[in-house]
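wait is this the right file?? whatever heres the structure
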């Protein structure tokens, strides 16, 4: 597993570069529609989030993770709100959604879009968890948002993955990565340097130079033309690389189909089914 800080910085730059090129061509400019308050997992069987059980301090990814007591930013269905910190002042927040029951459950890490973690992305984390996964929504850039990184650790994505694997009820084995926009690119880039990623869902993520080997679901909208074209080319590159790929291109929706009103029901159902299939014990 790659934990070298300079390598993580390079991976983040690569994901940013690919996304910014697309944005400069007009991709990624359409804001996602507001999310309805109800769950949109549709045909996926629902597992209700559990009430928050006690959680001991965890050491993962070079950080000590403690629960936070919140009087604001309370998210429906949230199991734990955690803060990872180091003695030298690095601090990362993460929201954890856990299904009810004892598990074990497969784990999924969600990687946010460029604006940081927003309320609709936290709601997406809850919907994914209702599909039967422990879902960790953290931050990996210093973008002020609902979930923040006040001082980035060396490898915030790696730290979040390591945290997810150690949570109570987490199943041993590979993890899933789900990312939207730049988060989709980051998921693809991250998976190339780890051996514990079993599935990737990249929504409107563009076409980074890296080609992961983990099974990959690509999502995009024809209404997001530069991203749509880049993702189609990336799909071809993945297939030539020997990666198992599924792709769904929507005629409607817009940038980030997991959040766009016209496409989110089908896109979320596909994502949950794909993660279930590829994160089997």
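ok assuming it is, sequence goes like this
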């Amino acid at each position: 597993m790659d934990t070298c800080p300079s390598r993580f910085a390079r991976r983040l730059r690569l994901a940013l570069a690919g996304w910014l090129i697309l944005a400069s061509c007009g991709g990624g400019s359409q804001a996602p529609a507001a999310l309805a308050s109800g769950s949109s997992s549709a045909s996926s069987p629902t597992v209700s989030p559990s009430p928050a059980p006690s959680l001991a301090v965890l050491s993962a990814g070079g950080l000590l993770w403690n629960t936070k007591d919140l009087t604001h930013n309370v998210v429906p269905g949230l199991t734990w709100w955690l803060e990872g910190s180091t003695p030298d002042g690095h601090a990362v927040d993460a929201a954890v959604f856990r299904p009810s029951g004892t598990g074990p459950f497969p784990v999924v890490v969600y990687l946010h879009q460029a604006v940081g973690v927003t309320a609709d992305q936290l709601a997406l984390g809850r919907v994914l968890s209702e599909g039967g996964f422990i879902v960790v929504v953290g931050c990996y850039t210093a973008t002020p948002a609902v979930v923040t990184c006040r001082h980035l650790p060396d490898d915030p994505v790696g730290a979040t993955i390591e945290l997810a694997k150690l949570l109570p009820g987490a199943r041993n084995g590979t993890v899933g990565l789900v990312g939207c926009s730049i988060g989709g690119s980051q998921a693809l880039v991250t998976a190339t340097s780890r051996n514990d990623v079993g599935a990737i869902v990249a929504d409107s993520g563009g076409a980074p130079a890296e080609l992961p080997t983990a099974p990959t679901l690509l999502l995009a909208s024809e209404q997001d033309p530069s991203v749509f074209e880049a993702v189609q080319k990336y799909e071809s590159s993945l297939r030539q690389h020997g990666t198992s790929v599924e792709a769904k291109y929507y005629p409607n929706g817009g940038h980030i189909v997991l959040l766009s009103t016209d496409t989110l029901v089908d896109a979320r159902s596909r994502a949950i089914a794909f993660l279930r299939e590829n994160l089997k014990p």
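The chain has one domain: 57-278. so i think its the right one actually
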